Amino acid sequence: MDTLFPVDASRQPVVTVKNGEVFTNSRDVAAFFEKRHDHVLRDIDTLIAHAPDLGDRQFVRIETPHPTIPGRMDRSFDLTRDGFTLLAMVDTIHQRPDGTAKRTFSENRERFVESEDFIELTSDEIRTMSIFPARTARATLITRRGYLKLVKP
Asked: Which domain of life is it from (predicted)?
């Protein structure tokens, strides 16, 4: 059973539903986490650079006219739920030292349910996903539910 915890109603993330799939925009992510949008774009670009196929599935590039500069287009991304989870797992977006999420997960692993909160990948899965450095022996993916357990107050 999921634990309920209070949420500041003024800080609700903005989500939209398109064709039955939930999305949020990188601008809304930046506003929600009180980050600069160019930093969020940098983190998305980094994720896509490590796994180019993510750009088509998890991060949909959007070009919109700049509100005050005629002829200029602004870039953003619509993120699927999985795309948001991948981005949100990046410690830097939370201004935490690298490894904070890993340490928190390790310290509280007994509270997490395998297949619901995290997934241990096999070496074959690691090789075929193309998002891990070469020769990565073990990897654990945190699901959205697991991520929320990591960051809750």
From this structure: Bacteria
Place of tokens 């990897």: 139
Beta bridge partners of 74: 64
Beta bridge partners of 72: none
pTM exceeds 0.70 for this model = no
**Is 4 in a helix, a strand, or coil?**
coil
Instruction: Convert the pLDDT of each residue in 24-65 to its tens digit.
Output: 899 988 887 778 899 888 888 877 876 676 667 788 899 988
H/E stretch holding 88: helix 81-88
What strand order describes the sheet that includes 73-80? 16-18, 21-25, 73-80, 59-65
Kindly list the domain boundaries of the chain, sorted by start residue: 14-91, 96-153
Phi, psi of 105 (to 5 degrees): -60, -45
